[in-house]
C-alpha cells in the first residue's frame, strides 16, 4: 500500500497536485491544515483493490476517491468491484467558482471527524492507563505494608520490651509516630516488665506544664483564650477569673469578650462577671478592642474571651492577627477539647500555633475516656500545658496541670480501653499501616 503526501498553499493547489500525480482514481486518505497551507495524503485505488483481493472477507472502504471527495458524493463500493464513475471534465475543479468553498468545507468536516476519533481514542487510552496506574499503586501500597509488617515483626520478636511499649502506647491512644519514636529509644537489655514504667518516665520528661501558678497570677498581663467553637472558652475564662479574684481581689481584674455575635455569648460571661463583681467589656472589632484595653490599662490582669472559630476557617488568622496588633501585648492560650480525636487536635494545634501561642488549656477531661491523644499532640508540638478543666462548676473544676497525675492516668488500663488493646501478633501490621497512613497524609 503506497500512500503519498501532497502539500499546497491551499486546498485547490493540493488537490491539483493529487490529480496530476495520481489521476482521477486517487483515494484521499487524510487531510489537515498545516502552517502555510493544506496537506493531503492520497493513494491509488488500485493499491486498495490489490490489498482487498487478498483478504478472506471484504473490508470497509475508509477512503474517498478524488472525484467523490471534490463533488461531495458518498457511494459505497463492494470490496471485489471498483466503483463506476462518470467522467469528469478536466477543468471541473479549476473552473467551478464555488469549488474552493466546497472543498474547504469538506476538508474541514473530514479533519473534525478525524480529530474527534483521535480524541476518543486518546481518552480511552488515558482512562485505561489511569486504571492501570491506580491498580499498581494499590499493589505497591499493599506490598510496602506487608514488607513493613515483616520488618516490624522481626524487630518485635527480638525485643519484647519494645513490643510492650508499643502495645501500651498505642492502646492508650498515642499516635503511631510518637509510639514508634519512644519505643526505638528503649534500652536494649531492659526487662519487659519494667518497660511501661520506662515509657511513663519518658512521657513525663517530655510533657511540659506550668511551673508556678502563683508566679503567673502575680506577674499579671493580658491573656486571650482562643480555640474552636464549643471547646469551653467562656466557662474557662470565668474559672480563671475566679482563681485570680480569690488571690488578688476584683479591683485589678478586667474582663473582655469578643463573642458578641453568638446568642448568649456575652450574656454568659456577663453573668459570671456580675457574680464576681467585675464589669465585662464587649467588643466587636479591632477599634473596640483598642478602646477597651485603653480603659483597662490600669488593671493587673485582663482576660479576653474570644469567639470560637474552626481551625480551617480563614477567620482564625483574622482574629489572631487582630489580637497581635493590639498596643498591649496579648498572650494567647489555646483551649483543646480532650474528647477530640488525635487528628483533629493536631489540625487545631498546627492552625493556631502559627500565631505564637503562650500555652494551652485542656478542657473536658471528665468526658474523655482516654487522654493519650491530647498528651500526644502536646508532646509532639512542644506546647506547654497551663491548666486542665473537668466540669462546669466555677471555680472548682479547674486546676493547674498535674503532670504526674496525667501520665499516671493515661497509662493505667481501664475498662473502656480493653476492646482497643492490641495482641502481640497484631502489632506489626497495625504499626506499618498507621505509619503508612500518616506518611500519605503528610505527602
TrEMBL record:
It comes from the Bacteria. GO terms for cellular component: plasma membrane. Belongs to the GTP-binding SRP family. This is Flagellar biosynthesis protein FlhF. It is a peripheral membrane protein. Signal peptide: none annotated. GO terms for molecular function: GTP binding; GTPase activity; signal recognition particle binding. SUPFAM superfamilies: P-loop containing nucleoside triphosphate hydrolases. Its main location: membrane. NCBIfam families: FlhF. The keyword Nucleus does not apply. One of its GO terms (biological process) is SRP-dependent cotranslational protein targeting to membrane. Necessary for flagellar biosynthesis. May be involved in translocation of the flagellum. The keyword Membrane applies. Residues 220-412 form the SRP54-type proteins GTP-binding domain. Keywords: Bacterial flagellum biogenesis, Bacterial flagellum protein export, Cell membrane, Cell projection, Cilium, Flagellum, GTP-binding, Membrane, Nucleotide-binding, Protein transport, Transport. Pfam families: SRP54 (PF00448). It is found in: Cell membrane. SMART domains: AAA, SRP54. InterPro entries: AAA+_ATPase (IPR003593), FlhF (IPR020006), FlhF__GTPase_dom (IPR047040), P-loop_NTPase (IPR027417), SRP54_GTPase_dom (IPR000897). Residues 219-384 form the AAA+ ATPase domain.
